Amino acid sequence: MTETLIFVLVLVAGVLVLRWLRPAWYWTAFGIVFAVTRVLLRYRPVMEACGLTVGPARWRLALARATRQDMPGPRSPRILRVRPTRTGLVLRLKMRPGQDAFDFSASADRLRHSFGMHGVVSREIRSGVVELAMTGFDVLRKVQMPAAERGTLRVPVALRDDGTVHYRDYRQVPHALNLGATQSGKSVYQRRLVAELAAQDVALVGIDCKQGVELAPLARRFSALADNPDDAAELLDALVERMADIYRIIRAEQRISADVPDAETTADIWGLPEHLRPVPIVLLVDEVAELALFTTKEEEKRRDRIITALVRLAQLGRAAGIYVEVCGQRFGSELGKGITMLRAQLTGRTAHRVNDEASAKMAFGDISPDAVLATIQIPEDRPGTAIAGDSSGGWVRTRTPFTSLRQAVAACNAHADRTPELAELAPFRPVLPPLKSAKLPAPATESAPAPA
Ligand SMILES: Nc1ncnc2c1ncn2[C@@H]1O[C@H](COP(=O)(O)OP(=O)(O)OP(=O)(O)O)[C@@H](O)[C@H]1O
Ligand SMILES: [Mg+2]
């Protein structure tokens, strides 16, 4: 008897330790079964308590009255499917007449603690059907990226709080702004982007006014780098010139006549035949405010030149395959004229932890007040956590997996042979020492076998 008790106690303690140390394993081994049982057992009372039921049908009431039976109770939404996932459960529900998908998203927090889950997100997948995506544990505490598909200029960059992968898709959202206080994880996010893009056919161009401390170690995969505002101004002018050249190529190819099929007419580089298509460019700017600050008249002129070039690239670059990714601690009108215009061109928005509401508003003020609130609530002890949104008003909480500088350097060195040489940007090509040979050193002469 005592032995059984000890065995049970050890087992329970083991399960609790597993839950704390390896929540994903715990979820797969035990959590799913417990959660499905809990959700199905509590389903009706929870729906009723959350106000997600409707009254009984009239014919049922009439029937009950006619047969003098008990009145039927309220009806909950019908469960269409319960699907366990790697990190939680997905409950697909058929709404009852008169219900609204908004009722479910407004009750998400109540559902979360009533079902004992870590998070619940509701979305309407088609008319009358909502999906409750529930997470069983805090997936952002220790980020483990699931296997993710990669596409042309579409890279997995972070994990969302519902356990799915968050992608940075340059062809869908060409330009983006990444804001956050110091130590919030902006550069690690950017490093992750570089490490992922390194394996693709793309030219990386960097501007890092912290004397290149973040991007210079990754230089082998960069076609051009500028580490001070003077070089940045020249580099941006060269990029604008390249953009004009690409438009000339596209224009020359656009012989639209009645006998050219629709699929062969193009207004961007992706429609060009492969042998003519210029390599796409991702321009990464770290600490953008450094480019906008000035003290002398000369510096002011340089600043205006830089901001004008950035605005032109963000305005016209997409079709020429030039994508802009800007990182900074703040990016508001206090940085001078042209900044809000540039910000308006940056469709993708990512905000890491910020120190005040004004900074959060720089990312989301003109898009979504909820996202501003969520950004302010990011805790200090979770660097890499960010709110990612776009200009359509949607947003999601994400966290980037930690990518060390060493890992990013290894990825860049491994793909160094993919670095395209761009003639226009040749003056900015980083000068690099040759890679150390991986060959083993030749055996010492003393120990070499004597010739026969
Ligand atoms: N995704 C992450 N997971 C775990 N730790 C992280 C993550 N991102 C960043 N950190 C930690 O936070 C530190 C600061 O990150 P990072 O250099 O990216 O901040 P930053 O926002 O670029 O700061 P600054 O504005 O000063 O350059 C990193 O050295 C790392 O220790
Ligand atoms: Mg940084």
Heterogens: adenosine-5'-triphosphate, magnesium ion
Bulk shape: elongated
Q: Kindly, what is the distance between the CA atoms of the first and last residues, rounded to a whole number of angstroms?
A: 78 Å
| CATH level-two architecture of the largest domain | 3-Layer(aba) Sandwich
Rg: 28 Å
Order of helices and strands: HHHEEHHEEEEEHEEHEHHEHEHHEEH
Task: Please outline the helices and strands.
Blueprint lengths: L1 H20 L1 H27 L8 H9 L11 E7 L3 E7 L6 H6 L1 H7 L4 E8 L2 E7 L18 E7 L4 E5 L6 E4 L6 H12 L5 E6 L13 E5 L2 H25 L27 E6 L2 H4 L4 H20 L5 E7 L10 H7 L2 E4 L5 H8 L4 H8 L8 E5 L5 E5 L5 H10 L38
Parallel strand pairs: 7-11, 7-12, 8-9, 8-10, 10-11
Antiparallel strand pairs: 1-2, 2-4, 3-4, 5-6, 5-14, 12-13, 13-14
The structure holds adenosine-5'-triphosphate (ATP) and magnesium ion.
Q: What this model shows, in words?
A:
With 452 residues, the chain is of the alpha/beta class. It has two domains: 17-135, 2-Layer Sandwich (Threonyl-tRNA Synthetase, Chain A, domain 2); 154-428, P-loop containing nucleotide triphosphate hydrolases (Rossmann fold, 3-Layer(aba) Sandwich), CATH 3.40.50. Helix content is 36%, strand content 18%. The chain has 13 helices and 14 strands. It has helices at residues 2-21, 23-49, 58-66, 101-106, 108-114, 186-197, 229-253, 289-292, 297-316, 339-345, 357-364, 369-376, 405-414, and strands at 78-84, 88-94, 119-126, 129-135, 154-160, 165-169, 176-179, 203-208, 222-226, 281-286, 322-328, 348-351, 385-389, 395-399. The strands form two sheets. The chain has a ten-stranded mixed β-sheet with strand order 6-5-14-13-12-7-11-10-8-9, with helices on one face. Strands 1-2-4-3 form a four-stranded antiparallel β-sheet. Helix 1 (2-21) crosses helix 2 (23-49), helix 6 (186-197) packs parallel to helix 13 and helix 7 runs parallel beside helix 9. The longest helix is centred in the N-terminal third of the chain and has 27 residues, at 23-49. Residues 186-187, 214, 286 line the site of magnesium ion (MG).
